Each structure stands twice: as structure tokens, then as C-alpha cells.
Amino acid sequence: MVHTAWEPHPEPLALASAPVPEYGSGSLADVLPTLAAGMGVPGMTAAIPELTPADRNCVFLIDGLGWEQLRAHPDEAPFLTSLMAASRGGTGRPVTAGYPATTAVSLASVGTGLPPGRHGLPGYTARNPATGELMNQLRWQPWTPPRPWQPYPTVFQQAHEAGVHAAQVSSPTFQNTPLTKVALSGGTFLGRLTGEERMDLAAEQLAAADRSLVYTYYAELDGSGHRYGVASDTWRGQLMYVDRLAQRLAEQLPPRSALYITADHGMVDIPFDEDHRIDFDEDWELRAGVALLGGEGRARHVYAVSGAENDVLTCWREVLGDRFWVASRDEAIAAGWFGPHIDDRVYARLGDVVAAAHDDVLLIASEREPNESAMVGNHGSMTPAEQLVPLLEVRS
């Protein structure tokens, strides 16, 4: 959709209307610290008060399984659906992913127990202030030294040092990636190819010690959603499969165990038309004064040419403000989008302008992001469909 400067623009969305994640009481960043605190790991806080301590804890993270998508598909996921009333310690409520609701950010929040403003992975892509380049934080391109980028120890590392048996059971592909090292390392990594092998091994690892903290992961539901959408038969078939995986793991829990099934984000399908997909690469107004376009289609970091920050903010509010929450960097920080505190090293990684989708709309970049621009299912923003994730519980 191409806009012209003389078109009238509706009033922008009030920033106060954005549903900020429940950092400190009910976000993904609060899950592992709560579990670790219940196992006596020093320095950990039981931030989610609804959860009851257990000696052995397992987190099964299903990439892309949002609360609203699960609720809409009870026939495909009878086992997971049966647990929804017990989500979040029996309250029947979800937790929030954190902003932006995207994989690299959420996995770092899960593993470190910190919100994005602390761990410093604030989006799918973000500017590296040291080089001025966009860095893809999922693929870690261009390569950046991992430890300076995310210097905090993971919860797994701290649990291991406290004598808790810590293990991650995932695809062998992820064992040596920088994202795994900064977000999910600590204890033992065990790579297994199939979902069934991961469930069986996760149960074995839970039983390997009196106190255990185990993480396992499944990615293909998210991939199906991106390629075909959450309304597709392929996505529903994947949901049926992960439902069986979750039940397989639950049925093997050793005594004194708690299994928590969660996700890194939800997903929304965006139609392929000009009303729903705005192309940055074809919109001269949105491009004016922009040096770099970061983030992803529903959660953008916009880096302005020096001196053009206010002009870019004004323009983006006028053009997109009725469909996106559009904030300056300082406004987004003050509103708590990235958490209650922003580390100094993280500040300049955030966009001069931050834009989060409110409607079923996508800000694509067809030339610079051809693959991402072609995806059916998308995520990143603060809408319930993207932000709310389950915290289903099974205890033995």
C-alpha cells in the first residue's frame, strides 16, 4: 500500500492501550527462576506464585503454540486441551511471551530468566551499535562474539553450580549454536533427532537425580505455521503430533516431578493483499530518513539517519499509527515493552522508533526480506494471539 503525504490519517493508537507483558509475575522469563527457587537454587525468585515447588522439573517448549491457537483446536490436541484448566498453577490462565514475541527473544528470556531489556536480544534482527549492522539474533549473522552480547549466566548454569542435574534435550543441530550458548547452556546438552526420542530421554534425565531441571524443545509446529498458516491442514497435523509427544512425556514422569508445557509465542495468519501487507520497500514515506529496518513484520525496530529521529517517528505515526502502536525508543522503554529495566549495552540496540502491530497487518520488506515477506503465519507483537502462551502442568 502506497500512501501520499496529503492523505488524512486517523488518530494514532494510544501507547497506554498496548498490553504490556507480565514481566516479574507471569512471563516466560519468570518460569525457570520460579522452578529453580523451588529447588533451592541460590539467587532465584519464585516470581510466579501460583506454581508449587517440585524436586524434578521439566519444561517442554513447543515453538509457535500460542494459547489462542490451542484453545481453537481442541479436537486436534485433546491431551493438551485437557490441561488448560490447570495452566499456570491451576488458575486456567496463560503467561505472556515478552516483547517482541519471537523465538530468539523468548528462548533467551526462558533460559536466562531475564526480560529482553536485560539479556539484550531485543528482536529477530537488531542493530549492533559497535558495527552499525543489523544482526539476525536467531541465525547469529553476521557472527558476533556471543558472551559480550549476552553476558548473564543461564538458569541452567546456576542450577548446575548449585548441585541440580541440568540438561537440555533438543535437536543435535542446536548444540553448538551461539543462541544455545547464550540462552540455554549449562549442565548437559543431549541431541536427539526425533520427537519421541527427546520425550523418552527427557524423562530419563528427570529421573537421573534427586533434583533435576530438564528442558526439551520441538520446532516444527512453528515452521508449518510460517509456511502454511495456522489454519492449514499441515499445521493441524503437527499439532496432533505434538499433542501425542506431550502425552508420551507426561506418562513417563518419575516420582516428585512437574512437567510444564509452554511456547515461545503464538501466531496469526496475514492475508496476501495490500490492505494487510504494507511493503516498506515500495513506500517512500516510510523509507524517508530510515537507515536500517530491523525486527520483523509485526514488531519493527526502525533506525533513523542521524538527526531524522523525530521526523521518522512523526511519519510512521501518521502512516501506520492507527494499525500499529508506534513509539519512540524512550517511550517504549518507559511503557515497559522490553521489561522494567534496560541495560546500558542494550539501549542502542533498540530502534529509534519501535512499531508493534495491533491489527492483522504486516509491514513487509519484499526486496530486503524476501523469505520473511512470503510467510503466511507471523508473530512478534503484543496481541493476545501472539503474546499469550500456555503453561500447562502435569505432576507425578
How far is it from the N-terminal to the C-terminal residue, by CA?
54 Å
Task: Give the CA-based shape.
Answer: globular
Helix segment tally: 18
Percent of residues in helical segments? 25-40%
Key descriptive features of the protein:
396 residues, alpha/beta, four-stranded antiparallel β-sheet, 18 helices, 18 strands
Description:
There is one protein chain. The chain has 396 residues and is α/β, with parallel strands linked by helices. Helix content is 32%, strand content 19%. The protein is built from 18 helices and 18 strands. It has helices at residues 31-38, 67-71, 78-82, 87-90, 103-112, 116-119, 146-149, 155-161, 178-183, 195-206, 220-228, 233-250, 284-287, 309-320, 329-334, 344-347, 370-373, 384-387; strands spanning 56-62, 95-96, 125-127, 134-136, 165-170, 188-191, 212-218, 257-262, 268-269, 277-279, 290-296, 299-304, 324-328, 353-357, 362-364, 377-378, 388-389, 392-395. The strands form six sheets. It has a six-stranded mixed beta sheet with strand order 6-5-7-1-8-18, with helices on both faces. Strand 3 and strand 4 form a beta hairpin. The longest helix is centred in the middle third of the chain and has 18 residues, at 233-250. The N and C termini lie far apart (54 Å).
